[in-house]
Amino acid sequence: LLYQHMQSSWIKITPNDVCKQILKLVNEGITLSQISVHFRNLCDFEPVLKFNSLLSEIPKDLYHLIKQVVVIHKHLEYNRSDKVPKFWLILIESRIYHLTKFYKT
Fold it and tell me: Residue ranges of the Small ribosomal subunit protein uS15 N-terminal domain (predicted)?
């Protein structure tokens, strides 16, 4: 390993407290990326979320691409002759396809 994972001596928090804080933040509706910024130096919180079955099954990047596709489809329902969103739709769907292949392996 390039680094050694050690708890800093100045941190006076127990793993149980961290678990409680993570669950509290998730229940408040804070996104996982915001929680990870909050706990970046404290611990790895993904196992806690997996253990409590709160971790999303769809990766964040794939979720946001799917969200973009839905928005573009709604736009194209009302603006069928709009060519630029059709082009972007093809590109985003291609990215989704490649990401799903990546996550399946």
Answer: 3-40
